[in-house]
Amino acid sequence: MLLQLSPVQGAATLAELDAKDAAGLLGTFTRDQIISRLQLLSPNQVADLVLALPPERREEVLKALPPDISASVTALLHHPADSAGGIMDNRFIAVTADLSVEACIAKLRASSRQRTDELLYVYVTDDFQKLVGVVSLRELVFAASDRRIGEIMNRDVWSLGLTDDQEEVSRRIQHHGLLGLPVVDEQQRLVGVVKLRDAIRVAENEATEDMQLMVGLSGEERLWTPWKNSIARRLPWLGVNLITALGASAVVGVFENTLARWTALVVFLPLISAVAGNTGNQALTVIIRALALGEVAPGDALRVMRKELVIGLANGCLLGLAIGLLAFGWKGSVLLGAVVGAAMLLNQIVGVLSGVAVPFGLRRLGVDPALASSIFVTTITDIIGFFLFLGLATIAIWKFAL
Amino acid sequence: MLLQLSPVQGAATLAELDAKDAAGLLGTFTRDQIISRLQLLSPNQVADLVLALPPERREEVLKALPPDISASVTALLHHPADSAGGIMDNRFIAVTADLSVEACIAKLRASSRQRTDELLYVYVTDDFQKLVGVVSLRELVFAASDRRIGEIMNRDVWSLGLTDDQEEVSRRIQHHGLLGLPVVDEQQRLVGVVKLRDAIRVAENEATEDMQLMVGLSGEERLWTPWKNSIARRLPWLGVNLITALGASAVVGVFENTLARWTALVVFLPLISAVAGNTGNQALTVIIRALALGEVAPGDALRVMRKELVIGLANGCLLGLAIGLLAFGWKGSVLLGAVVGAAMLLNQIVGVLSGVAVPFGLRRLGVDPALASSIFVTTITDIIGFFLFLGLATIAIWKFAL
After folding, report:
1. Are residues B308 and B365 in contact, defined by beta-carbon separation less than 8 angstroms?
2. Residues B90-96, mean pLDDT to the nearest whole number
3. Where along chain B do its domains lie?
4. Which of A39, A43, B52, B150 could form a disulfide with B19 if both were Cys (CB 3.0 to 4.6 A apart)?
5. Contact assignment for B295 to A223 by CB distance below 8 Å
6. A196 and chain B: CB distance < 8 Å anywhere?
C-alpha cells in the first residue's frame, strides 16, 4: 500500500506510524525506495526508523543516505529514542560572544544554503562549546550591526539535559512558550536543539498513548496498523480483563443462593456495574489528563480524592434515588428499592474513589498511570459493587426473613 | 484559591480552565484584580473570558484594559470562539510589495517596542489590504537590503478563512509545519494570524475533550474545576447511562426463566459484559484518535470495519476457547462450555463492530464522534451480548431438554 503513495505522502505516513510498524513496512522495500522516503524526514525520525530495522539492514541504509543526514542520524542513535537526545535536532548554529552582529549575520547567511528548515535562535557558546547565551533571530535583526553578540545575548538560557524524558521536555518547551530549547551534555556543552514542532509530536503521541493505554492497548496503534500487530497489542490486555472479570463472576457465584431466592436482583446487576464503571472512568479520565499535562503533583492525591468524594456522594444520592424508585415501582417492594438504591449510591462512591486510586497507585508503582487503568477501574467497581449489592440483599433476606 | 496565586500563576491557571469556570472564579474579583491577571493573557484568551463573564461586567472590564488590548479583544468578540477568527491574534505586521528590504526592517524595528511576543513572518498586502505574499523573518535578514519585498516574497501563501473551524485550523498549521498562518476575510483581506502556539492549545484541548466526551463529560473538565460544575457535567450522562443500562437489565429480565432454570449462567454475565465492553473501547479509541488527527475519511468506514472484524474474530476465538474450557472445567458441562464460549466469540465481534459503528454513526449525525461514545459502545455490547448469551442458553435448554 505504501508503495502506491508518492514519496512525500509515504514519508508522512511513515512518520505517523509507530517506528516498529513503519520498519516492518520498509522491510519489503528496496534500498532506493527506502532512501527516497527517508530523505524527507528529520534526522530524529530517521533515527527512530533505522533503530527499528533489522540490524543487518541498518548499515546499508545509513550508508546510502546523504553524508550529512547519515552523520546526524548516527549521532542520534546513541541516545534513547524517548529522551531529549533522541528527539533533538543536532543541526544548529552556535557562535561565540565576541562575534559582531554583522559577522554573525554573515555567518548565518553562509550556512543558510544547506538548511531547509526555519532558523529561530542563535546559541552562544564559549571556547569549550559550553552554552552561555541565546539570541533570537529577531533580536539579531534589530541590533546595531557593530555590537557584540555578548552584549545583546540573553544569559538566562533554559536548557535540557540529554537524558531528560521526552514528555517532560515537551511540557517545558510549551510551558516557556518558546520555539525550541537547547540540549546540553553533562559538561554543559551544546549538542542539539529540541524544536517546538517535535515537542508537539511528542505531546500528540502522548495523548494517543494515554487514551489507548487506558483501555489496554500496548504501544501505539494507528488506524492502519496491520491487523496482526493490532491483535498482538490488544489480546494480552483482554486476557488480563478476562482474569480480572473472573473476580466479579466469583462474587456473583458466592451469592448464588441469594440470587436464587430473590431472582429480581439479577436484573439490576448490569445496571450497578455499568453506571459505576462509567463514573469511575469519568474521574479517571480527568486525572490521567491532568497528570499528562503536568497539572497535578503526587501530593495532590488527597485533595483530589476529597473533591471526587463530594461528586460521588451527590451523584450517588440522585442516581440511587432514581433507580430505587424505579425498582420500587416495578415490583412494589420497598425493600428491593432500598437495596438497589443504596447499592447504587455506595458503588458511585466506589467508582470515584477507584478512579482516583488507580492512576495515583500506578504512578506510585512506577508505571504509566494510564496503563490498563480503565480495565482496573471497571473491575474494581464490578467486584466491590456486586459484593455490596448482593451483600445488602443477603442481609435484607436474613433480617426480614424473605 | 486563585487570589492566593501570583498574578502570573493566576493568569496561567485562568488560561487552562474552561472559559466558563474561569469567568466564574473571576466573578468574585474586583476590577483591578481581574485586570492585573487579564493583561498577561493573549487577546484571544481574554476574549474567551470576557465572553463568559456576565454581560453587565463585560463593558467594565473592557474599559479598564489598556486601549490596544481592549481594541483587539473587542474585534475578536465578533467571531465565534471556536473559529479561526476567535483564536487568531489580530496584531500583525503587514507591508506593501514596493517597500525595500531596508525600509521593511526599519518599520519592524519601529513597531517592535510594543510587541512582547516573537515575530515570525511579515505579510505582504496590496492597496486594498488583500494578502498577496509572505516573507519569513529569516528571508528578510538574508536578502540584500536594496531589494523590494515583492521580489523576495513567497506568493504561494496559505491562508485561513475567518469562519474555519479551529480544529481544522490547528491541523493545517501543524501539517504545513509552519509557525503560523494568516487569516483573511471574505474579500481576501488580511485580518489576523493564528500562531502555532494557539494551534497546539487547540489540539491539546481537543485531545482532552475527546477523552472526556467518550465517557460522558460535557465540556472540558480540569482537575481543579469546582465540584458543583463537575457534578453538572457528569450527572446528565450518568443519567443517560442509567437509562441505556436499563436496556441491558430488560434483556436479563426477559430471560428470567432461563436464568432460574440454569443458575450457573448468572456467574458469566459480568464476564461477557466486561471483556466485550473493553474490546469495543479499544476499537473505539483507535478510531476516535484517527478522526481527531485527520487520518481517516468517512469513506474509510468499510475498510476499518473489515480490519476490526478480523481482529474481533481472532481475539473472539481465543478468548471464547479459554472461557469455554474454564466453564466446562468448573461444572463439567460441555453444553455450558459451548454456550459461554460461543457467546464470548460472538460478543467480541459485536464489540469491534460497535466500536466502529458508534463513532462513524455519530459523525454521520453531525455530532462529535467522541460524544458519550464509550457509554453507547458498552451499552450495545451489554444488550446484544446478554441477548446472544441468554438466547443461546435458552435454545440449548430447549434442544437438550435440560
Report:
1. no
2. 85
3. 2-78, 94-210, 226-399
4. B52
5. yes
6. yes
Residue of A nearest to B315 (CA): A235
A319 close contact with B: CB closer than 8 A: yes
- Distance (Å, rounded) from C-alpha B14 to C-alpha B30? 16
- Nearest beta carbon to residue B268 from set A217, A249, A275: A249
Q: Does domain B2-78 have CATH number 1.25.60.10?
A: yes
Asked whether this complex has an ipTM greater than 0.90, the answer is no
Given pLDDT bands bounded at 50, 70 and 90, which one contains residue B116?
A: very low
Helices (H), B177-226: 196-214
Neighbouring residues of B229: CB distance < 8 A, sequence distance ≥ 6: B20, B21, B24, B221
What phi, psi does A180 have (nearest 5°)?
175, 160
Measure in Å the smallest separation between the Cα of B56 and chain A Cα atoms.
31
Query: For residue B2, is pLDDT > 70?
Result: no
Which string of b and e fits B379-401 if b means at least 16 CB within 10 Å? bbbbbbbbbbbbbbbbebbeeee
Q: Check CB contact under 8 Å for A197 and B177.
A: yes
Half-sphere exposure of A375 (CA within 13 A, CB side): 32
| CB–CB contact B256 A274 (8 Å) | no
Say how many C-beta atoms besides its own lie within 10 A of residue A176's C-beta. 12
Sign of CA dihedral A205, A211, A214, A217: negative
What is the CATH number that goes with domain A94-210? 3.10.580.10
- Residue A173 zone, left/alpha/beta (φ > 0; ψ -120 to 50; rest): alpha
Chain A residues 52-91 within an 8 A CB cutoff of chain B: none
Which residues, other chains included, contact A23 with Cβ-Cβ below 8 Å and sequence gap of 6+? A49, A52, A53
Residue B9: pLDDT band with limits 50, 70, 90:
low
Residues of chain A with pLDDT under 70: 1-19, 112-119, 218-219, 402
- Fold observed for domain B226-399: Tetracycline Repressor; domain 2 (1.10.357)
